[in-house]
Specification:
455 residues; 5-stranded mixed beta barrel; single chain; 14 helices; alpha/beta
Length: 455
Amino acid sequence: MAAQNLSQTTYCVVTYGCQMNKHDSERVCGLLEECGSDRVETIEEADIVVFMTCCVREAADIRLRGQVETMKNYPLREGSPLTKRVIAIGGCIGQRDGQSLIDDMPHVSVVFGTHNLNALPHLVMAAVADQSPQTEILEAGDSFWSDLPTVREHSWSAWLPITMGCNNFCTYCIVPYVRGREKSRPIEEIEAEAKKLVADGVKEITLLGQNVNSYGRDLYGKPRFADVLECVAASGVKYLRYATSHPKDLTDEVIKKFATLPNVAPALHLPAQSGSNRILKAMNRRYTRERYIDLVHKVRNACPDIALSTDIIVGFPGETEEDFQATYDLVKEVGYNQVFTFIYSKREGTPAAKIDDPTPHEVIQDRFDRLVDLVQEKAYERNQSDQDKVVEVLVEGLNKRNASQITGRTPKNQTIHASVPPSMDPSSLIGRICTVQVDVAKTWYLAGHLVGVGE
């Protein structure tokens, strides 16, 4: 096959991890399609398979290696122009492990990192032409590659990166080592992209960064995230969301935007990680339990009906029952709508990986299970506030268990399923904003029936 392009090939992208990885995957799709490759839904149909990886937890490493190993047994599709399937590994594991991935798995064709997405087509074509593995890892990036082609998962929703990298160096976290130091986009670029997205029909924009609250410190000498919210809200987008928000940099000015900007969605992901001041210090989180609770009060004063979510790590090295109880009590006091709970995963290369911890796994598992029970109880209680209400819904698709129902998300980021009149085609509502009467409020979702169709 000629190396000039990838016409007549098919590709599939498998994505693990955070929203930033999902956005990077959309750009990988754009790059491959610009070269003539056609997207397919399964690995078996694909001539080119790209894994966009995450190395925050050990399970992601194990899952990647297991899936890549099994691909040795997958034959190429009939009619493929290639003589060998191209397997590419990118994202954070690609950045961290580089050439060693090919050393361990010789059937891998391409490895690239977090700083050189734009190189993927060249690496793929070189692997095809030379029939030899290609590896390119850059130590740092100097661009957002915001001009790269993008194929969005949904036409009505878009990621908009405003920072990349992280300067926080939490002792358990590998992200600063694989994503690099924090770098902000000029606010003028962000504003221009937001306007372009809205003109393109986007109804929901999610601002992305490892720590959006510190946006601009490197460019302007001080954080300007509140200004970003103002300029993106002025684009006229219906819903404006952002992730992730570090508590140490959440300012009163940003919190006030929940009250003053009507298109800032009433939902905030505010990772606590622990409720113990001793453990927070060991994690290098640079806030206290008291500061965190004060932020929660301020946020709820600005937006009383806001949906709060968080991340909690159970079993950080040295965590005692007293430390865990402080975390348990924090979750009980705040009453989150959603909590992402994790058992601590050692990541080589981070300071926490050097800490010995004699705590038996069964003790950690018991704490985790107790916390999950509380999380479910509080999430159920929170959702009851929407029982019998009429809520807006951005429809994302059909209910996988019942294709006669629509599925979408409320402004509070709740999943909701809704029945539609028999005379209406539910698929015609995908991508539209509807109103739904909530008939049932469960722990992790709402259910109801359609009462209105909007834009």
